[in-house]
Design goal:
Structural class: alpha+beta
Helix content: 25-40%
Oligomer: single chain
Shape: globular
Strand content: 15-25%
Largest sheet: 2 strands, antiparallel
Length: about 60
């Protein structure tokens, strides 16, 4: 997982939408999926215990 990709830096630079400030009880996975949105896929490395995002295949041709 390369956290330095332009698209992931873009995601991390965005402000947290107000609708996501109070998500209620949910799993961490569901919260991360909600925060990333449909433009990003959640990437989980079980061996190194790392979690990150990459641009979803449906968005790969677009620009951010």
């Amino acid at each position: 997982m390369d956290p330095a990709t332009r698209e992931v830096r873009h995601l991390f630079g965005l402000p947290l939408p107000s609708v996501h400030r109070h998500l209620g009880p949910m799993t961490l996975r569901d919260a991360l999926l909600a925060l990333g949105g449909r433009a990003y896929e959640l990437v989980v490395d079980d061996v190194y215990r790392e979690v990150g995002y990459r641009v979803a295949a449906t968005q790969a041709g677009g620009t951010l």
